[in-house]
Task: inverse folding
């Protein structure tokens, strides 16, 4: 099977280089074929291609229409989303190919965010393609620095550099080297742009920032997706500079299509054109359609504003046929590149679907990727991994036996029944017995289960307490002002603590949560997020020591909500934190996070020493090598993500106190040491100046190396 690029989950902060980016560049032959189809199309036929509607197989937004099958027959739809399986996509495709006038194949899209059936951030293109899908609405590349925002669970965290690498890797994973490969699907960089900067972490809320910050922090992952060949973009719900993204000429025509020369197509998010009315930017849906097409939107998701009004707008000379032709051409080129005009049913093959869905190698990959994504946050007295003395395990907590929540909220076609809960996995372990008591629900105040949980724990050698959020507490339209552990789960922990037995917290949550008191009460804390279809096995691999955890946090964990936004690459300010009064700090909590960006422990320990630079002077057309000695000083073989940060001490604009510029994941046997090196070029130090030019600037720099963004050793160099 095609070598599949397996996304190494963001939390392990490394990625495996993969094939060259997917090709979306049309060729002369396709252009000619597009021209031949367009020559047959009436204006109505063209407008139909700009219309994307949801089927009734999944609900991902506030509106729904039942007439989509009729509209397919009338040639008034170019693409359908939320319809999947080989059988159902074949059924709808047949309507287009046998009952519509021009027989233009449909495009099938779906939110294959963390997998299609086998849910985990990884092999997704194969299973999606096998189920008739041509297009995923992923990767979501929104940088987010506010964990109150529920959609942090979908992205790659707070850092533009890391988010860019992961976004590009995901595009390559979905699109492969060649879109004619029937196991590749179109990717979609979303939500363009700056959706993650919603004020107060409230979904769909206003975004307001300078163009400098937009270009420095929020656009880089979108540009990285473009450089990786992403086929489509999705506009975001939010406004930016006072203009809804779907009406932003700046974002769509100036930056994306002109400055970046994007040749694919732009789809709106769900009814975003219609929502310009609520934004107070369009008078009505017809005005929204005019604004969107003029701004550069090619396809209207679920709003039918294009379908209803573009023809009138052409007659009123408020939009042009040339604009519509450009949009149609962009869409048809990708349908040709996918091979849909050669064989509209090539993705809708039920035999292939049976072979590929839940293929053993996918489940194995799900388990491997999941355990690599876990972050060990605390491990006092080597509580983990289970020692030989552990013969009785008490698994307690509402997330100990869930097959639902472990799939998270963007679960596409994932099946709870196929998911492996932590209890199911631990029950298969030969080395110890496990008893399970839920103790309480995730939410609510009912403590009636505490007594049985405590009784079960009393008889155990170790307590594993699985607590956290419901899958529905993060994701779209799922923001929280209080991001602590809900219900009475923490009180259950406090009661279990009284038994004086070792307690391992297994956290399941879609965002950073405020867990300072829970961490204090626990002996070990393992962050497992929502780890997908093989979550139970992956967690068991770590608890038993079969896998030594290596993941790192892609997003800061605050001590409390009051600290938000708190992120590693902040500015120094004119009164940086110190002991004296007049400095930038709080009276009631420190400026430090509970766990910083890049943090993650191992069962072993690593020591950094001998940081050396090949030169203390970096010339603008040259590079320097940063090297550091890494030693595995503990009792386990293990992997460490060595992180490289720089600081530009004085800039044309103020610069962050640290910026991630590289990382390498290294395996060292216990006792082994290695010298790890990074190369820094002047271009790596470029930034947006006050005049928005992007270039490096001579001056003094510091370089930091370590296993997270705080515990680092440093050296200095000068760029000249
Ligand atoms: C939703 C989401 C978007 C998703 C789309 C289609 O509203 O914002 O990420 O791709 O609708 O389901």
Result:
């Amino acid at each position: 099977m095609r070598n599949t690029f397996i996304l190494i989950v963001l939390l392990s902060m490394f990625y495996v280089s993969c094939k060259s980016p997917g090709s979306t560049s049309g060729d002369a032959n396709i252009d000619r074929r597009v021209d031949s189809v367009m020559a047959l199309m009436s204006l109505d036929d063209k407008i139909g291609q700009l219309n994307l509607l949801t089927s009734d197989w999944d609900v991902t937004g506030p509106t729904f229409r039942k007439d989509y099958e009729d509209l397919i027959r009338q040639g008034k739809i170019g693409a359908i989303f939320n319809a999947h399986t080989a059988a159902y996509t074949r059924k709808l495709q047949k309507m287009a190919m046998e009952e519509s006038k021009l027989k233009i194949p449909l495009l099938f899209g779906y939110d294959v965010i963390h997998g299609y059936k086998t849910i985990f951030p990884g092999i997704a293109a194969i299973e999606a393609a096998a189920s008739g899908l041509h297009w995923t609405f992923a990767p979501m590349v929104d940088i987010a620095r506010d964990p109150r925002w529920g959609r942090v669970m979908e992205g790659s965290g707070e850092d533009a550099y890391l988010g860019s690498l992961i976004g590009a890797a995901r595009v390559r994973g979905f699109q492969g080297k060649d879109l004619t490969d029937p196991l590749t699907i179109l990717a979609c960089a979303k939500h363009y742009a700056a959706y993650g900067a919603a004020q107060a972490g409230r979904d769909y809320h206003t975004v307001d920032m300078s163009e400098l910050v937009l270009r420095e922090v929020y656009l880089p992952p979108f540009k990285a997706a473009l450089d990786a060949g992403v086929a489509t973009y999705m506009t975001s719900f939010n406004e930016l500079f006072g203009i809804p993204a779907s009406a932003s000429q700046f974002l769509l025509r100036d930056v994306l299509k002109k400055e970046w020369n994007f040749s694919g197509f732009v789809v709106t998010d769900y009814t975003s054109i219609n929502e310009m009315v609520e934004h107070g930017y369009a008078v009505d849906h017809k005005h929204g359609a005019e604004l969107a097409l003029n701004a550069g939107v090619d396809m209207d998701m679920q709003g039918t504003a294009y379908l209803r009004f573009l023809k009138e707008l052409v007659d009123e000379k408020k939009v042009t046929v040339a604009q519509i032709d450009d949009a149609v051409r962009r869409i048809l080129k990708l349908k040709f590149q996918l091979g849909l005009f050669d064989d509209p049913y090539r993705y809708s093959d039920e035999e292939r679907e049976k072979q590929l869905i839940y293929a053993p190698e996918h489940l194995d990959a799900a388990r491997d990727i999941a355990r690599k994504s876990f972050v060990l946050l605390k491990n006092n007295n080597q509580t983990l991994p289970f020692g030989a003395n552990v013969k009785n395990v008490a698994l307690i907590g509402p997330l100990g036996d869930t097959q639902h929540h472990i799939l998270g909220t963007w679960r596409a076609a994932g099946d709870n029944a196929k998911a492996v809960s932590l209890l199911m996995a631990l029950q298969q372990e030969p080395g110890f017995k496990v008893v399970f008591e839920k103790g309480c629900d995730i939410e609510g105040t009912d403590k009636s289960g505490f007594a049985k949980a405590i009784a079960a724990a009393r008889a155990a050698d170790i307590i594993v307490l699985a607590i956290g959020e419901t899958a529905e507490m993060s994701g779209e339209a799922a923001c929280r002002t209080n991001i602590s552990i809900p219900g009475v789960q923490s009180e259950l922990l406090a009661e279990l603590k009284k038994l004086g037995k070792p307690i391992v917290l297994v956290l399941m949550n879609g965002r950073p949560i405020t867990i300072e008191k829970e961490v204090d009460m626990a002996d070990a804390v393992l962050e497992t997020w929502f780890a997908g279809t093989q979550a139970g096995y992956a967690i068991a691999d770590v608890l038993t020591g079969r896998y030594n955890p290596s993941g790192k946090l892609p997003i800061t964990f605050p001590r409390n909500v009051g600290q938000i936004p708190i992120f590693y690459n902040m500015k120094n300010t004119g009164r940086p934190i110190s002991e004296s009064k007049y400095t930038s700090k709080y009276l009631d909590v420190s400026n430090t996070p509970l766990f910083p960006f890049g943090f993650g422990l191992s069962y072993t320990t690593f020591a950094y020493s001998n940081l050396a630079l090949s030169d203390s002077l970096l010339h603008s057309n040259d590079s320097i090598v940063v090297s550091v000695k890494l030693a595995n000083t503990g009792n386990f073989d293990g992997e460490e993500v060595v992180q490289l940060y720089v600081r530009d001490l004085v800039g044309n604009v103020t610069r962050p106190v640290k910026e991630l510029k590289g990382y390498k994941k290294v395996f060292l046997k216990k006792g082994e040491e290695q010298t790890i090196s990074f190369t820094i070029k002047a271009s790596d130090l470029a930034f947006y100046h006050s005049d928005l030019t992007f270039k490096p600037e001579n001056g003094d720099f510091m370089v930091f190396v370590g296993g997270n963004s705080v515990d680092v050793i440093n050296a200095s160099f000068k760029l000249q």
